[in-house]
Amino acid sequence: MSSAPFVWPVRVYYEDTDAAGIVYHANYLRFMERGRTEWLRDLGFEQGRVRAEEGVVFVITRADVEYVSAARFDQELVVLSALERVRRASMTFHQRIEDNAGRTVCRAINTIACVDAASLAPRRIPAQMMKVIDRAQ
Q1: Distance of alpha carbon 104 from alpha carbon 55, whole angstroms
Q2: Which of 26, 36, 109, 129 measures 20 to 30 Å from 63, CA to CA?
Q3: Domain 6-136 is classified in which CATH homologous superfamily?
Q4: Tens of pLDDT along 74-123?
C-alpha cells in the first residue's frame, strides 16, 4: 500500500454470511466501500454533502479482488484502505481486510471515478477535495 492505510473496523453480522456461515463474497466489497467512505469522511468530505454542494458522486469502475481466507459470523475485522493513485477524475485504492490477528482475509485493488450526480458523466474531482487528498498522501 502506498499511502499510510486508513483503518476501519467491521464486525461480521449474521446478514453478512451465506448458508455455510461464512461471509458472502460480495459483502467484502461492501466492507471495502465502508472503508473508502469513512476515509473520505475522515478527510472532511461526507458524500451526501459532496453530492449536494458539488453535484458529484463516486462510482466503482474496477474491482480486482482476491479472497484469501474465510471470515465468519461475529468475527471482528479491519478494512485497510490506502490511496495508490489519484487522477483528475478517479482514485485507485489498495484495500485489504484482516482478521483481529492481522491475517489477510481479502485484498483488492479498487478504482472509483468521480461522475456528475445527474448524468453520470465523468467529472473532475472537486478542487478543494484534491487539495486535501494531496496533503493526505
Answers
A1: 36
A2: 129
A3: Hotdog Thioesterase (3.10.129.10)
A4: 999 999 999 999 999 999 999 999 999 999 999 999 999 999 999 999 99
